[in-house]
Amino acid sequence: MHEEGFEVELEARAPMHLLEPKRLLSDEGVKGTLRFIWNILRDRESRERVLRMRKVFRRYQSNLAAVMMICVKRQAANHYISGVPFDLLITARNNREHPDNAKRNI
Questions:
Q1: CB–CB of 61/72 below 8 Å?
Q2: CA end-to-end span of the chain, whole Å?
Q3: Which residues of 58-83 are buried (b: 16+ CB within 10 A; e: fewer)?
Q4: pLDDT tens figures, 38-58
Q5: Distance CA 69, CA 9 (A)
Q6: Residue 36 class from Cβ within 10 Å (0-12 exposed, 13-18 middle, 19+ buried)?
Q7: What is the pLDDT of residues 12-36, one digit of tens each?
Q8: Are the beta carbons of 16 and 23 closer than 8 angstroms?
Q9: To pair with 52 at 20 to 30 A between CA atoms, which of 1, 29, 89, 99?
Q10: Can you tell me the distance from the alpha carbon of 55 to that of 49, in angstroms, rounded to the nearest whole number?
């Protein structure tokens, strides 16, 4: 990340618990979990696919992890594209894309 101009603010790892009931409830809430269960009960192909995925997650749980990174782009002293400051290019683009300006062909 450093080579690409980013500073790592925070990095965390956790066990991969996708498709486990406790994790489903945590991620999706009660309503979302019930909808998920209803959908896999109704659709045999989906149910088989989800169960195969869960089996793989369980088999390789010692090799899988969830990874989170929060990175911030470092500010360079001068951002120029074709001799024009980057901030000006972004401002010009934003002004051009603004709905009010589209009517006036700016």
A1: no
A2: 38
A3: eeeeeeeeeeeeeeeeeeeeeeeeee
A4: 999 999 999 999 999 999 999
A5: 8
A6: middle
A7: 998 888 899 999 999 899 999 999 9
A8: no
A9: 29
A10: 10
